[in-house]
Amino acid sequence: MFLVDQLILMAAILLLIGIISSKLSARLGMPVLVLFLGTGMLAGEAGLGGINFDSPGLAHALGTMALAMILFDGGLQTPVASIRRVWKPASLLATLGVLITSAITGAAAAYILDLPLLEGMLLGAIVGSTDAAAVFSLLRNAGIHINTRLKSTLEIESASNDPMAIFLTVGLLEVLVNDMPFGLGLLQLFVQQMGVGAVVGLLVGFVSVHLINRIHLVAGGLYPVLVAACGLLAFGIAANLGGSGFLAIFIAGVMIGNRPIAYQRSTFLFHDGLAWMSQIVMFVVLGLLINPVSLLEVWREGLLIAAILVLVARPLAVFPILKLFGFDNRQTSLVAWVGLRGSVPIILAIFPLIFGLEGAELIFNVVFFVVLISATIQGTTLPLMARKLGLTETPPPEPAASLEITALDEVDAEIVEYRLGDNTRAVGRRLSQIALPDGTVVAMITRGKEVIPPRGSTQIMPGDHVFVVLRSETRPFVDCVFAEQANVVSYELPDRPLRLKGSTRVGEVLHSYGIALDSDETLTLDELLRQQLTTTPHEGESLQRGSISLSVLGVLGERITTVGLSITQDEASVSTELTPPG
Fold it and tell me: Where's the RCK C-terminal domain (predicted)?
């Protein structure tokens, strides 16, 4: 048997154990990273597996690659709207917050471990950032729902604060090992890391979107691979130019994920799976690297440092920053508590070993212990803390699933699957009574195991699965009709007018969108316009009904075939009571 055969078997077994442990995570209420690390420790030389792994360089390489893919997936799934909403507090937490946390923890570590101040500060810098993989996984799998602004702040901070921790770690190592000037040298390194990383991420992301949509690949399965290559390109260019590859790949992911690209859904699913595999590989390898016995030698010191990090340093960094942006005490307390440490500190703890710093092994063991304590205690208590602080919310309706037709440049349409609940506007009505945007087609309805051909007389029932073919610009309108709603709906029209057939009745517009036209509900839009317009209708004419503007978009003879509806008031929104069917 060749060595590679044994390695493949070993890798498969560890991956399977990691995947199964992720299933146990939700039941045990423990973060997956703790279970993955535990898997690696059990498989290691001092554990049941007896695997002898002692290669910090290889662990660093695998960890860096895995972390890059995790951040890239986080960027792909981060809406620009979330960044715009919280970029100010998140960016301050990711820079100034990390600096304050690192300084307080570092000073305490220097005293507790009897280290020189700069070496203590190095340890503080290593544990200064929250972990994107841990926070993303915890917030998305903990079974709780918190305020969107709060959740976005935590996710954007955790995804963007790694470059600051890396900069502080590398900078302090350069000062300690290579005698780099402490002041100006660190400032230049900071500007270079952040500036180059941001510029490269923006440029590569912009170019990647155009490349993905214009290149014609023979195999559709190559598009997710192409997207991954673009992300790694951003990381590689930035890192080789002296910038932050982690910042670059995250920004490139945001740029690509927020633009329509070919095979987008397939790409997102591919990268979600790749990010999970990266987490498993990264944490298992890092678990293999540690000897559990060595943790027992530093548990007292590690526990003290972890307590200061969690209970003192993180809150002192978070409270002043978030108070500036109107976060209340309860929200600020939760942000301070969800400061999970994860893979990044462990990967950074390998740096002193690579640099050959004296006492590097002590730093690595203490950091590993702090990460285990932080992830275990903070991770497992997040749902409890959120409930105690009164910050949990009712889960939002599950979004409709988009099903791809083919490559984006071939068909400008998508198939969306809606699962209808009791509070859906369309429930209880026939298809002919629903005011769908012009050009939108209901392709299929399933009810249980039965497939129902859609006809005008087909009545929509709760629990139905409705498959709708639509263009991307009409998606918000169709969502208003078929997506699960609360009892009170505040609906904001997009910039484009809602295109409706002239045969659509006024009452159908009211029931489908909550838009009242103050006319007889049995009138069609064609009849309403022809009654109100003084001349023979022609394209371009419009009628103002309060804040609603109706415009003639299509005419056949004297009949109006297509009508545009738009809101002209400043707030451009309509709020309406929705009475559930029945």
Answer: 403-484
Q: Tell me the Ramachandran region of residue 97: left when phi exceeds 0, alpha when psi lies from -120 to 50, beta otherwise.
A: alpha
Topology at the third CATH level for domain 3-25+60-388:
Na+/H+ antiporter like fold (1.20.1530)
Contact assessment for residue 335 and residue 327, using Cβ atoms and an 8 Å cutoff: yes
At residue 515, the 3 state secondary structure works out as coil
Domain 397-485: state its class. Answer: alpha beta
Closest CA to 502 of 553, 431, 433: 553
User: What crossing angle do the helices spanning 80-92 and 314-323 adopt, rounded to 10°?
Assistant: 120
Q: Tokens 């002898």 sit at which residue? A: 52
How far lies 417's CA from each of 399, 434, 465, 487, in Å? 9, 17, 7, 22
- For residues 172-199, give the mean pLDDT: 81
Pairing of the two strands 414-419 and 401-403 = antiparallel
Closest CA to 373 of 98, 31, 40: 31
Tokens of 351: 């740096």
pLDDT score recorded for residue 38: 78
Question: What pLDDT, in 10s, does the model give residues 86-140?
Answer: 888 988 998 899 999 999 999 999 999 999 999 999 999 999 888 766 676 666 6
Confidence (pLDDT) at 572: 40
Amino acid at 499: R
H helix intervals, 93-131:
98-113, 117-126
Of 327-341, 473-487, 563-577, the range with the lowest mean pLDDT is: 563-577
Token digits of residue 109: 């570590």
Residue 267 is encoded by which pair of tokens? 């790409």
Instruction: Please tell me the distance from the alpha carbon of residue 517 to that of residue 520, in angstroms, as a whole number.
Output: 9
Cβ pair 447, 464 in contact under 8 A: yes
Please say if the pLDDT value at position 410 is more than 80.
no
Q: What is the pLDDT of residue 285?
A: 82
Please report where in the chains the tokens 């423990």 appear, as a residue: 30
Average of per-residue pLDDT across 162-176: 84
List, in order, residues 6 or more apart from 541 with CB less than 8 Å away.
529, 533, 535, 551, 552
**CA neighbor of 559 nearest in space, from 534, 516, 524:** 524
Query: How far is it, in rounded angstroms, from Cα 38 to Cα 412?
Result: 47
pLDDT band at 332 (very low <50, low <70, confident <90, very high): very high
Residue partners of 409: CB distance under 8 A and separation at least 6? 213, 214, 216, 262
First to last CA, the chain: 69
CA-CA distance, 109 to 314, in Å (whole number)?
Answer: 15
CB 133 within 8 A of CB 31: no
Report pLDDT for 211: 92
For the chain, give every domain's residue range.
3-25+60-388, 397-485, 490-582
pLDDT at residue 155 is higher than 90: no
d(CA 315, CA 337): 8
* 490-582 carries CATH number 3.30.465.10: yes
- pLDDT given for residue 398 in this prediction: 62
Q: CA 85, CA 93: separation in Å to the nearest integer?
A: 15
The pTM of the full predicted model, rounded to 2 decimals, is 0.74
- What are φ and ψ of residue 423, in 5° steps? -100, 20
pLDDT for 22 beyond 70: no
Other CB atoms within 10 A of residue 538 CB: 10
* Main-chain dihedrals φ then ψ at residue 444, nearest 5 degrees: -160, 150
301/321 Cα distance (integer angstroms): 29
